[in-house]
What does this fold into?
Amino acid sequence: MQQATDFLEESEALFAILADVSGDQWDTQTQFKRWTLNDVLVHLHYWNQMADLSLQDPDAFAARIGALFGKAKVEGLRPAENKAISLRGNELREAWRTLYTDIGTRWVGLDPKQRVNWAGPDMSVRSSITARQMETWAHGQEVFDILGIERVERDRIKNVVVLGVNTFGWAYQVNGRPVPEAMPRLELTAPSGALWDFGEPGENRITGPAVEFAQVSAQTRNVADTSLQVEGPVAAEWMSIAQCFAGGRETPPAPGSRHRT
It folds into this structure.
């Protein structure tokens, strides 16, 4: 399952820029909801744990998720996650790396169609590990940004692009809007220069870098801060509400609010 290798490589790319972070640097606030570097790794490590637990022990997974959401109703999700993971700083970074390396190596041999439980509807292990790559890549963006580092993108971003395509209808549903009959045509350029296209030709079309489409889908950039060419009313509406992740409706970042420092 190539997606497991892609998840591992995405995690390693993030680890590489965190390798020299230490001390008070872990409390640096990012442009994403004032999350600190510690908050980012707590979030990634916790949900990596949950993804693996859902595979290995569904009953234990259900119990832990139930306990987390019970606390989250009272104090919010981030405080609940921060209580569930006690490690911080360098120790957290090493525990996160140990687990993602284990998952990325072990999940390669799984049947991609095997079903696993999740906080929402169950899903295939391929969808589960793709979601973990997307989360790592998306939350990695605020780390790269705040550290002033430009990320070198690879064609494994296609997994995130496909997730954005597959959640076209979800973006409308979570915003309480009727789903258009047809998804806009996508003509995207991969980091390697390859051309990726999705959907049928029509008046609604989005062209440009695949990475920037993924950024808008994962809400790490406002579409106004990209070079994407958006043609047609459906394409414009989609790019204003795109959301390739689960949970409640989230508002995309305001123009200019997410950028490399």
